[in-house]
Amino acid sequence: MSRQMVRPGGRSARVQASVHAAVRELASEVGRDALTVPLVARRAGVTPSTIYRRWGDLQELLSDVAVERLRPDTAPEDHGDLASDLTAWAEQFLDEMASPAGRAYVRDALLGDPDGGNAGRCSAYAAEQVGILLARATERGESTPDVETVVDRVVAPLMYRILFRPDGLDASYAGRLVAGILGHGDR
Amino acid sequence: MSRQMVRPGGRSARVQASVHAAVRELASEVGRDALTVPLVARRAGVTPSTIYRRWGDLQELLSDVAVERLRPDTAPEDHGDLASDLTAWAEQFLDEMASPAGRAYVRDALLGDPDGGNAGRCSAYAAEQVGILLARATERGESTPDVETVVDRVVAPLMYRILFRPDGLDASYAGRLVAGILGHGDR
Questions:
Q1: Where is the DNA-binding region (chains A, B) (predicted)?
Q2: How far apart are CA B53 and CA B98, in angstroms?
Q3: What letters, b where the CB count within 10 A reaches 16 and e where it falls short, cover A19-30?
C-alpha cells in the first residue's frame, strides 16, 4: 500500500499516476522481470528516491500497481436472476485471475505487501462485486446467501486453485461452485 | 522446485540438506530478510555457484525450504470419527498456516515458484492428510465427501482468508466449515 495518503489532483496523485503508468508501459516493453526502480523513475520523470520514499521498494510498487489493475471498473452484468448473475461473474473472475496476466498481478499483489493491505483490497473488490449481485437479487425478491458465504464457497476455491492447484480449472467448475451454493438450503 | 533430481544419500542430497539447514539456521539468527546467497553458501560449506546452479536464485531456494517446512511429518490424529478428525485437522492447519512463521512460509513457497510446482506440493500435502482422514472414515463405515470437495469447502476458504481476508479467522470458523460439509447432503 502506498505510504502516503493521496489527495486526488495534487502533486502526490500526479506522481502516483505517472509512476504507475511507467510500470505498466515498461512491463509491456521490457517485461516485468527487467524492471528496476531507476528505470521506472526515469520513465516517470521522478527521482528514484521519490519512489523509495513512497513505496519502500520495487516489490511494494509492483504490488500497488497490481491491485490497481485488479480493481473492477464496472458493476457486474445483470442477467435477470441470481444464478445467472453469479455464474457469469464467477466464470469471468476465473478467466481474468487465471490468465497469465491475472496470475502475475495476484502474485505481485500478495508479495510486495508486508501489512496485508493490498491482499485485503483484492478480496474487498471481489466481495463488493458479489455484494452488488446479492443486493440486486434481494430487490428482485430472490432469497440469497450472504457475501461471506459466497466468498467461502465460490471466491475462495477459485483463488485457492488458481494459486495452488490449477488442474481442471474451467468454466464448468466455476458453474458447479455456484450451483452448489444456490442449490442447497444453507442460506 | 530444485532443478535437479535428488538421489537420497548421494552428494546432491547432502548438498541440499546442508543448504536447507544453513537457510533455517541463518533465518533464525539474522532474519529472513538479511539472507543472501553468499551468506548461505558460506554457512553450508558450498560455493555460491552451487546454489545458483541448483536453485536459480535466493527466492527459489527460500521457496524450496518453505515447502519442506510445510510438509506434515506425521499422519493426522485419530479421534474416532470423521467430524472430530476433520475438525481437529482443520483447526491445526489454520493454527499453523496463520501463524507468522506459517504465513511467511506460504508466501515464500508462492513467491520463488515460477512453475507452480512448490505451490502444488503445498496443496498436495493438505490433500494427502485429508485423504488419510477420509480413508479412515470409510474403513469405519462412515459416508464421506471426496477429497476435492474437502479442499473446496475447508482447505480453500482457510487458505484464502489467511492470505487475503484474515479478519475473524479462528477455530470456530474452521469448525463451521467442517460442520457445513458434513451436515448437508452434498457428498
A1: 36-55
A2: 33
A3: bbebbeebbeee
Residue A155 near residue A102 (C-beta atoms within 8 A): no
Closest to A156 (Cβ–Cβ): which among B110, B120, B156? B156
pLDDT in tens, B106-151: 989 988 887 888 999 999 999 999 999 999 999 999 999 999 999 9
Residue A90, C-alpha cell as written in the block = 464467477
Domain locations in chain B as residue ranges:
11-56, 70-183
Tens of pLDDT, residue by residue over A110-120, are 888 878 889 99
Is the CB of B172 inside 8 Å of chain A's CB atoms? no
Interface membership of A41 toward B (CB under 8 Å)? no
CB contact under 8 A, B160 and A165: no
Nearest-Cα distance to chain B for A167, in Å, is: 10
How far, rounded to the nearest angstrom, does the alpha carbon of residue A185 sit from its chain's CA centroid?
30
Instruction: Identify the DSSP state of B185.
Output: S
Residue B18, C-beta contacts closer than 8 angstroms, at least 6 positions apart: B44, B45, B46
Residue B101 makes CB contacts below 8 A (sequence gap 6+) with B69
Architecture per CATH, domain A11-56, reads as Orthogonal Bundle (1.10)
CA B18 to chain centre: 21
A153 touches chain B (CB under 8 A): yes
Q: Do B161 and A156 touch (CB under 8 A)?
A: yes
Chain B contact for A165, CB < 8 A?
A: yes
pLDDT of A8 strictly over 80: no
Whether the Cβ atoms of residue A147 and residue A131 lie closer than 8 Å to each other = yes
Which residue in B186, B184, B175, B74 sits closest to B132, CA to CA?
Answer: B74
Q: Nearest 10 degrees: CA dihedral of B92, B97, B100, B101?
A: 100
In CATH, the number for domain B70-183 is 1.10.357.10
Residue B157 touches partner A, C-beta closer than 8 Å:
yes
Q: In this structure, what are the phi and psi dihedrals at residue B168, rounded to the nearest 5 degrees?
A: 75, 15
Is residue A34 pLDDT above 80, yes or no? Answer: yes
